[in-house]
Design brief:
This protein is an alpha+beta fold and about 375 residues long. About 65% of the residues lie in helices and about 10% in strands. It folds into two domains: about 180 residues, no CATH class; about 130 residues, Helix Hairpins (Orthogonal Bundle), CATH 1.10.287. Strands 1, 2, 3, 4, 5 and 6 form a six-stranded antiparallel sheet that branches. A hairpin with a 6-residue loop joins strand 4 and strand 5.
Length: about 375
């Protein structure tokens, strides 16, 4: 007869209950973990999208400034009560072509909302007025305005130098926008955000904004162009002075040669007169000894004059020959000076065109 043990039959059912409880617990933990992870991932994605909107808006402002040489005015903008010289409002999404972007606050230095004064790259008139102020405003004028603001050193409370700033308030977990009514910029303004709201901010100081626009490289190239034009003009003036001196030396030598030629003609006429006097002396010579002696003395005197005049003629002829050689050399040097003037004139024109093109292009390539 076999003895039965009821407890052993119930054993497997007990293990099943324990395993089921453990399984349900694990499922619950995994479910909670999964939903928590999904929520965090969604929040992170939404937060990343919010930051992308902020970065896209910042780039749009930079592009607007490059195209218009100023920044756009805020929507519903008004002078800042806590920041003198600044205008606050909402970022003008339509003007920037960002209609799908989240709404965000926008603060800007008031002078950057208007056309800046024209920038004159040649204040000392180094180029004799060739490079002057333009009639149309472009990005270089905005760059000059930014540099003036940077040198002025105007700062917000806390030491921040601000050209413009944008800010959006979001819930960190969901990334949903929070309708902010005040530009905070992390100062002690009355619009302190509620607990749990994160402020994402992008700011650009005048110097940083100028660097972003490439102002320093543009100013460097334009300054080099102005100085190159001025240097070419100085060289052109020197070359013209040299050409004037060469021409003056040439004119003086030509006058000297002309005088020598006239003197040579006069010497030739004098010899003819001396010869004629000798002939007349022989014809009129009397037969008396005294008359013969006087005539001989006169003839000797005339012969000496003829010899001296002949020597002068030979000397002048040699001088004329040497003068003609020197004249050819001076003409060659004068022609070289003229060619140098022409080359420098072309260089001045090329440098002027290049500099004016740099000035007119502003921040464009």
């Amino acid at each position: 007869m076999t003895t039965r043990h009821p407890g052993r039959r119930r054993g497997p059912h007990g293990w099943i209950l324990i395993e089921s409880a453990l399984t349900l617990s694990l499922v619950a933990v995994l479910t909670v973990t999964t939903f928590t992870a999904i929520d965090r991932i969604q929040g992170r994605l939404a937060s990343d999208l919010a930051l992308q909107d902020l970065e896209r808006s910042e780039n749009a402002l930079v592009g607007y400034a490059q195209a218009h040489a100023r920044l756009p005015a805020p929507d519903d903008g008004a002078p800042s009560a806590t920041r003198p010289g600044y205008v606050e409002g909402w970022l003008p999404l339509d003007a920037l072509g960002l209609s799908s972007t989240r709404r965000m606050r926008y603060i800007v230095e008031a002078s950057l909302l208007h056309a800046p004064p024209p920038y004159d790259p040649d204040p000392l008139r180094l180029t004799a007025g060739r490079i002057g102020a333009r009639g149309t405003i472009n990005g270089l004028d905005l760059c000059w305005q930014l540099m003036r603001l940077e040198r002025a050193g105007t700062a917000l409370p806390g030491g921040m130098r601000l050209g413009f700033g944008i800010q959006q308030a979001v819930w960190p977990h969901s990334g949903a926008p929070f309708d902010a009514s005040q530009m905070w910029l992390e100062d002690a303004s009355p619009g302190t955000p509620p607990a749990g709201v994160r402020l994402d901010t992008r700011t650009r100081g005048p110097g940083e904004f100028a660097a972003t626009l490439g102002c320093f490289e543009r100013f460097s190239r334009l300054s080099a162009g102005v100085r190159s034009t001025a240097a070419a003009l100085d060289l052109l003036r020197l070359a013209r002075q040299e050409m004037t001196l060469r021409q003056l030396n040439l004119d003086l030598l030509e006058d000297s040669l002309l005088n020598m030629k006239w003197r040579l003609i006069n010497w030739s006429i004098a010899i003819e007169k001396f010869v004629l006097s000798m002939v007349l002396e022989f014809i009129g010579m009397e037969t008396t000894p005294i008359s013969i002696a006087k005539s001989i003395l006169n003839v000797i005197s005339l012969a000496g004059a003829i010899a001296g005049t002949s020597w002068l003629i030979n000397t002048d002829r040699e001088g004329i020959d040497k003068g003609n050689e020197a004249l050819d050399q001076l003409r060659t040097r004068r022609d070289h000076a003229k060619a140098q003037v022409a080359r420098l004139q072309a260089e001045v024109e090329a440098q002027t065109r290049r500099t004016l093109r740099l000035q007119a292009s502003g921040l464009n390539p």
